[in-house]
């Protein structure tokens, strides 16, 4: 079963998001588009939070966020409880972030990589599976730390 893909972008990432959305839909993925819907200036924060909250709340759901560099999106998305967002600009990192870190949100920089490279990264990221074992233990530690800090807040 293919996961549902929740997507979001700011104005700088809008074109790449639309390109990836069309590609993913043609591959049979269900897309939930949290915006934006144009190149009009917006705050990336709003879309990173919207995607992060949706991914965190739903099973069999992954997220893709695009902004100019991917940095702002990844930093903000990682503030959402349960999110493991990873900024990726190469194929090896795309595979490792899923296999070793069970990343559930992929962040891309539209001003850093070309649309076609973003598609190649996305395909690798979506086909890689978390490896489990020692990697699952490491992810569990990461998430336990997050939970312990939330209780103190």
TrEMBL record:
Annotated active site: 67, 100
Residues spanning the membrane: none
InterPro entries linked to this entry: RpiB, RpiB_LacA_LacB, RpiB_LacA_LacB_sf, SPI_LacAB/RpiB
GO molecular function: ribose-5-phosphate isomerase activity
Group of enzyme by EC: isomerase
Record flagged with keyword Glycosyltransferase: no
EC number: 5.3.1.6
Pfam families linked to this entry: LacAB_rpiB
Gene3D superfamilies documented for this protein: Sugar-phosphate isomerase, RpiB/LacA/LacB
Gene Ontology process terms (BP): carbohydrate metabolic process
Record key words, sorted: Isomerase
Similarity section: Belongs to the LacAB/RpiB family.
Protein name as catalogued: Ribose 5-phosphate isomerase B
Species of origin: Selenomonas timonae
